[in-house]
């Protein structure tokens, strides 16, 4: 279990503290939802969590398999639904991996990313489009 402590600061801003480390971050509502977009929105953190989880999960397997993923970059585009209720409609993920291991290792790493804990926690109605670019 991990505890996260949150405090509403007013004006649609929330301060969150990761209790084990003491690290904090703030969220703000996006402009199209009455906020100032001065920081990540809560749904931005869903997208961030997905990309970070994919990278870390791949990193665990890569370390075990002797593959260097240093320099891998991930871009996640979050698309909100145009219809009520307000929610994430689609998460588009582009992974650029500078190395190109053999095809068996590529399949293993891609499967790992697609089945990371965050990916498995996303509601099935949210569309996920994931593209891997190896050797880029």
Compact overview of the structure:
The protein is of the alpha+beta class and 136 residues long.
The Cα radius of gyration reads 17 Å
In total, the number of domains comes to 2
Structural class: alpha+beta
Query: Which residues sit in consecutive blocks of at least 5 with pLDDT less than 50?
Result: none
Q: Which H/E pattern describes the elements?
A: EEEHEEHHE
Task: Report the strand count.
Answer: 6
- Determine and state the CATH class of the largest domain: Alpha Beta
CATH architecture of the largest domain: 2-Layer Sandwich
Outline type: globular
Fold and architecture overview:
By secondary structure, the chain is α+β, with helices and mostly antiparallel strands. The protein has two domains: about 30 residues, no CATH class; about 90 residues, K homology (KH) domain (GMP Synthetase, Chain A, domain 3). It is built from three helices and six strands; from the N terminus they run E-E-E-H-E-E-H-H-E. Helix 1 runs antiparallel to helix 2. The N and C termini lie far apart (about 35 Å).
